[in-house]
Amino acid sequence: MDWKSAKILLASTATIVLASQVAKKICRYFFSSSKEKEIEVANDDTNSELLQIKNREINDVILFSDDIVRHTLRVSANKDVSICENRELNCFKLIKYIKSARETLDVCMHLITSTEITEQIIRLGQKHVLVRIVVDSDMAYTPPSQVKRLEEYSFIQVQTNKRSILMHHKFCIVDGPKAIRRKNIIKAHAEKLNVHANYTNENSRQLSKTRITKGFVMSGSLNWSTQAMVSNHESVIVTSHPNIMNKFEKEFESLWVETEPAMKSK
To answer: What is the reported pTM?
Structure first.
């Protein structure tokens, strides 16, 4: 082989090696970016259901029935009411609505005996969701009521309705506008007493910009008891309609005895 042929062979080999390296880099780039996209999509899928609850308009009906039926009712041109009548799925769905609370949870319930729902309420309180609960005084401490257990946690406020009229309500308000305003007032009052208030205020301002929460109400015949969810025919309506939420918030406030110093001064 002469020198000229050797030069051509070396040049060709170098070109092939360079091309293969470039191809590897291109493949690595697209492979890694596709992997990142897959991870992003997976994370989005994980949070998508809770985000839908927190941000969309809700018109839902949960029926606890013996029959397994799924259907949708169209209430207007752009709004559907979804109905699912499988007990196991509906227990999961009810708890999913409860655990979607981001700021506040106001509960007005004749009876609370479900340990599963109690666990979710405790977890919400641990995540700094402000929880208030009103229960009927006659049923509050009757076994298997979970009220004593809830009262063990300082971040959960429980009041028993001591009026002569039976407190037979069964509703909860998730992230109600009035409750969130109340929480902000209490937070501001606490920050005034905090030596690190400037730092806290700055953090809370940044947090409030990113957390836009849409509230809703759940109301119906269902007590938060295992017996009701497993054995009874029950119904729960879930709605984010502002007028309906406003009426339920007024009713809750009429039953709640305010004890926070920041609220008394208002």
So the answer is: 0.71
